[in-house]
Design a protein that fits this description.
Number of domains: 2
Low-confidence stretches: none
Mean pLDDT: 83
Number of strands: 4
Radius of gyration: 36 Å
Strand content: 15-25%
Helix content: 40-55%
Distance between the termini: 111 Å
Order of helices and strands: HHHEEHEE
Largest sheet: 4 strands, antiparallel
Strand order of the largest sheet: 1-2-4-3
Number of helices: 4
CATH topology of the largest domain: Alpha-Beta Plaits
CATH architecture of the largest domain: 2-Layer Sandwich
CATH class of the largest domain: Alpha Beta
Length: 176
């Protein structure tokens, strides 16, 4: 009986030691193993970033040399800003039509929210235009920015319809 008891006790000690070793492995070694894998991934990513920067460095130096050689003009043209008078506000549709025509756009619809006094001193104008290319709207926006009464652009919506593009704009015009 004592022999059997000693064998069972020995197995219990071996089992407890095995549980302790497995527990130690789970608690101490596995988290460090996973953090080591994370660090290895970060090292690989950092090496890839360094290689990318080494590839881009000559290009950066070339562009920087070109920029250093370029002389920027001292006085850039800044359009005069100011509100439109009440009389000129009535002619805004014709002015916008003329700008659209210069930019190869057809002004389909123009309306203003005169009744809504959201911002006093400003007139909200909704426009719908049509054109063939996206670059036409870019040209229109650049020309509109040159006008003194153009305050800011609230919304641009571009819809592609077969054969042309439709541009919907919401702009704010400064008025006296």
């Amino acid at each position: 009986m004592t022999n059997l008891r000693m064998i069972i006790q020995s197995f219990m000690y071996v089992f407890i030691c095995g549980v302790f070793i497995v527990g130690y492995t789970l608690v101490m070694i596995l988290p460090r193993y996973y953090s080591l894998n994370k660090l290895e991934l970060q090292v690989k990513q950092t090496k890839a970033d360094i290689e990318e920067q080494q590839i881009l460095l000559p290009l950066y130096i070339e562009v920087k040399k070109k920029l250093d050689q370029y002389v920027f003009p001292a006085n850039l043209p800044i359009p005069k800003t100011g509100p439109l008078s009440r009389e000129d506000t009535q002619k805004i549709a014709e002015a916008l039509k003329a700008i659209a025509k210069k930019c190869n756009l057809s002004l389909e619809k123009i309306s203003s929210d005169v009744g809504k006094e959201v911002n006093p001193g400003y007139l909200l104008v909704n426009m719908t235009m049509r054109g063939d290319l996206f670059f036409y709207i870019r040209d229109f926006l650049l020309r509109l920015n040159e006008e003194s009464y153009s305050n800011y652009l609230e919304k641009v919506q571009i819809e592609s319809i077969p054969g042309f593009k439709e541009f919907k704009l919401k702009i704010w015009i400064a008025q006296a």
